[in-house]
Design brief:
Blueprint lengths: L26 E2 L11 H5 L3 H5 L10 H11 L6 E4 L2 H12 L6 E4 L5 H8 L4 E4 L18 E5 L11 H10 L5 E4 L20 E6 L12 E4 L2 H11 L9 H10 L3 H24 L3 E2 L6 E5 L5 H10 L2 E2 L12 E4 L3 H15 L3
Parallel strand pairs: 1-11, 3-4, 3-5, 5-6, 6-7
Antiparallel strand pairs: 2-8, 7-8, 9-10, 10-12
Bound molecules: pyridoxal-5'-phosphate (PLP).
Pyridoxal-5'-phosphate (PLP) binds next to helix 4.
């Protein structure tokens, strides 16, 4: 810390992302990226002509991209804003809708960025404990009297809420925002996007980072009522109008014409998840019912830290948190079938004490 750091931020604890090793010798199952490349048309969309155009600023509104997203969902462009990853859209939402008088609630175990943003922006927040089985008790969020942020499926548990549960939460909090972070929605849960047509307090976030194989491009969008999106745009235009760069807009548009590839890859990941879950069960692991591209697993004989360390020594990176309630668990991203077989073989060796 320098002597210049403002008093306001002197106690801020930044979010710690999963490791991104530069040497890449690891089988990387730690940050929920897709093991598959983006579809070919995304790659070929980056032409020399597009690169020459880098001298120009990108379209700040992302007009073409938003038009296409709107068509896909049968909604209006004014219901959509694009962002430099959903992390940025979360920041716009926290800035636009929360302050000292309008606080926010989210589960005690969820995406680690939510408390970081609340701290950064000086927003009071309540971390509502999940049940012992890590499910959300939705009665905690009925008439909550504050803004609500829920990841669905949740991270790092993978447990999903039903649409009717989300509807009850949105319905019972008409004076507050209900933000549903659907980073993992394409791996088996039901999207709340249709509900945004009915509930003017509901915002749904989607990212290209997981199911669209484009974590490195930094692209996400939020969907909600026109006034909510307008408020988020006020934040965006007060912070960074050109937030989504030109190449990312080009590639993201190309990606939307590849629904067959997208559906094939997410189906493969779901199948590989089911396979991995059944194999881990045979090895004595217990797991949450994950509807995401990762599993959250513990073994009765090993701590999470021990599994994490031993896997790392053997060239496999997973994620583990030294936090109460979840320190016995490892979170394992679903890779290709070959990667998961390597993971399962390594786990077997560890269990045998090899
Ligand atoms: C990965 C993740 C994000 C971040 O997504 P980006 O679009 O890459 O910023 C947001 N929310 C949850 C729950 C995530 O797991």
């Amino acid at each position: 810390m320098s002597k210049f750091l403002s008093q306001r931020h002197s106690t801020l604890k930044a979010y710690v992302p999963g490791e991104q090793p530069a040497d890449m010798q690891y089988i990387k199952l730690n940050t929920n990226e897709s093991p598959y490349p983006p579809p070919h048309s995304v790659i070929s969309s980056v032409t020399a002509d597009e690169i020459e155009k880098l001298r120009l600023y990108p379209n700040p509104d992302g007009t073409m991209l938003i038009k296409k997203i709107a068509e896909n969902y049968g909604i209006h462009p004014e219901n959509i804003i694009i962002g430099n990853g959903s992390d940025e859209l979360l920041a716009f939402a926290f800035l636009a809708f929360c302050d000292a008088e309008r606080s926010v609630a989210f589960p005690d175990i969820t995406y680690g960025f939510y408390p970081v943003y609340a701290e950064l922006y000086g927003i009071p927040y309540e971390q509502i404990p999940l049940r012992d089985d890590f499910s959300v008790d939705i009665s905690d969020y009925i008439d909550a009297g504050r803004n609500i942020v829920l990841a669905n499926p949740n991270a790092p548990t993978g447990i999903a809420l039903t649409l009717s549960e989300i509807e009850l939460i949105a319905q019972s909090n008409p004076e507050y925002i209900v933000l549903i972070d659907e980073a993992y929605i394409d791996f088996g849960a039901q999207s709340a996007i249709p509900l945004t047509q009915e509930y003017d307090n509901l915002i749904v976030l989607h990212t290209y980072s997981k199911s669209r194989s484009m974590a490195g491009a930094r692209m996400a969008y939020a969907i909600g009522s026109a006034p909510l999106i307008e408020d988020m745009n006020t934040m965006k235009y007060s912070f960074n109008p050109y937030n989504v760069n030109r190449l990312t807009q080009t590639m993201s548009l190309a990606a939307l014409n590849e629904e067959a590839y997208f559906n094939e890859k997410r189906r493969e990941i779901i199948e590989t998840r089911q396979y991995t879950v059944s194999q881990l069960k045979e090895l004595g692991f217990t797991m949450t019912d994950s509807k995401a591209n990762f599993i959250f697993a513990r073994h009765p004989k090993f701590s999470g830290a021990s599994l994490y360390m031993q896997l790392k020594e053997k060239g496999i990176l997973v994620r583990q948190w030294n936090k109460p309630r979840i320190s016995d668990y490892i979170r394992v991203t679903i890779g290709t079938p070959a990667q998961m077989d390597a993971f399962l073989n390594t786990i077997s060796e560890i269990l045998e004490g090899k």
